[in-house]
Each structure stands twice: as C-alpha cells, then as structure tokens.
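Aim 2 progress update. The chain analyzed this quarter is reproduced below.
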Amino acid sequence: MQRFPLARRRLALECKGRRELDCKTHLSISGRYGLKGKYVILNSLTLHSNIKQYGSYGKDEGSYFITPSTIGKIVGFVGRSGGEQWDDGTYTTVRELIIHSGWVIDSIQVVYNDKEGKPVWGKKHDNDGGQPNMVKLEYLDEFFISVWGYYSTVGDRVIIRSLRFQTNKSKHGPFGIEEGEKFEFPSTDGKIIEFQGRSDQYLTLIC
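Predicted structure tokens:
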C-alpha cells in the first residue's frame, strides 16, 4: 500500500500568465483508501473536471470513494497530515534552499523573491540536526520544476527520508537516505514558486 504524505499537494504553477488548474473547472474527486494500523491512509486520487479526467495518482488499492459532482466548481482543498502545518506565503520565485539531513530530512528553509525582487528568508522547518546542504539557483535564469524523494513510517509518524529537486537546468540531491516509499511531483511546464508542509521534529510533509 502506498501512502501519500503529500495528500495536500499545492505546487504553484505559472502557465502563460495563468495558473494551469484555473483554466479548467473541477467538479468531483475520487480515489481509494485503506487502513494502516489505526490510521486511514489515502492510496490514490483522481480529479474529474468538465473537460477530462486527471489521474489516477497513486495505487488503486483499497476501498473506493467519490465526492458527488456539482453544478459548480471546486475552488479549494483542505487536508491533514502529521505534524505542525507551515506555509511560507506567496512569492514570485525561489532563490535557494537550505536542507539539513541525515537519516531523515531534519529541516528545510527557503529563500524567496518578493514582488520587488528582494530576497526573503522563510522560517526554518524544523531542527538543526543532520548535515546542512545549500541549493542556490542562478538568479532569474533557473527555477524548480519538480520534487521527489522517499518517506517511511517511524512509530505512528510518516517522515520524509530524502529529497531531490530538479530545475530547468540541473538536478540537486539526494539529501538524506533513499529508503522507504518513493513519491514524486512530476515536472511541468511551469515553475514552483512556494512550498508548504508539516514538521514534527523532522519534516513530515512537503507540498
């Protein structure tokens, strides 16, 4: 069974001046889920729009669910995972990352660009353990397009074990240890301009 520590995926994509998902109306969501101990785990998701179906993403195993379609459109998502939720806010681009890692991803800190082109340091999520690593992009010419890595369950927590990042010019990582279940944000025609996640001593979610 594949679990999604990334159930609340929110990659901000720029597509010809408009956000790609804004170009379509999403009417319903379906997927499959199962039990892992005392927890209900989301295994897969499918998005149904007025134009086409997207997915399934994940493994189609477990019990099936679907939200009723409506005559309106879905304008937002709410989800929950382990740890304290964090959101760095909205910026124009990512300039660099500072990642502390050992056997897990101990923390991540992001440097963004504000609307005036000035660097803004996001808060560090979570601790100073592990080895510090810096990913510094070529300003204005380089941007992130994809993220992937591994996660595993330690006790009753899902923990991010490793991360890799791909830009329009190169790949960075791995940071941490590539053990457990693999996850991936596929590359797109847009760029990643912000990060969200959860942390509980270690990084437990990134999206």
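Confidence is low (pLDDT under 50) at residues 1-24. The chain has no helices and 16 strands. These observations will guide the mutagenesis experiments scheduled for the next reporting period.
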